Amino acid sequence: MELKTVRLDDIPAALGADFLKLDVQGAELDVLLGAPITLSHTLVVHTEVEFVPLYRHQPLFAEVDQELRRRGFYFHRFQRMSGRPMKPLLRNNDPVLSMGQALWADAVYVQDPLRRHERTPEALLKLAAIMHEVYECFDYTAKVFEAYDRLTGAQVRNSYLARLIAQPDPAAVPA
Rounded mean pLDDT of 55-66? Predict the structure, then answer.
């Protein structure tokens, strides 16, 4: 079956995206290759990646990783990792619970932190908001605020850290 597709760069609403989430069943590299303009403005990419082929002619994690690194991103972390048990073994009689090999994951990439000095104050605030709210990466957010402070002369990082320290840990509060 053939499908008509368009490049991400040809979709006006995608241009200027700060955050890009991809889950296109093995076509993530194709999307990235069709998005050089979009990626030049994107701050965070959250993409599904596979470690073993699940789809015909599918690029694997290493190829997606290389393309994102070529575009100025670096790997931040896996958000989740998934797999399936190999027959005939099942865990808790559930075919969705993995017992061993990782098959796919969601990978989070951010713009290279060495290029952070090239970012505008507005872009740094957007990056901080994404990393704080979406990923709860408080250490990374503090580093982004440090770059923001250097650029603007503000003192946001210290205020941010003080608020983090003053907040109780939600996991430690009894329900």
Answer: 94
Residues 6+ apart with CB under 8 A from 52: 60, 101, 103
Q: What is the pLDDT of residue 153?
A: 96
CB 102 within 8 A of CB 82: yes
Digit-coded pLDDT (tens) for 19-39: 999 999 889 999 999 999 999
Residue 132 three-state SS: helix
φ, ψ dihedrals at 78, nearest 5°: -85, 135
Positive or negative CA dihedral for 56, 61, 66, 69? Answer: positive
pTM (two decimals): 0.85
In whole angstroms, give the CA distance from residue 52 to residue 55.
Answer: 9
Report the alpha-carbon angle 106-108-109, nearest 5: 145
How far is CA 69 from each of CA 114, 152, 170, rounded to the nearest angstrom? 13, 28, 35
Q: Do 80 and 105 contact (CB within 8 A), yes or no?
A: yes
Q: How crowded is residue 70: how many other Cβ atoms within 10 Å of its Cβ?
A: 11
**Sheet bearing 73-82, strands edge to edge:** 19-22, 44-50, 104-111, 73-82
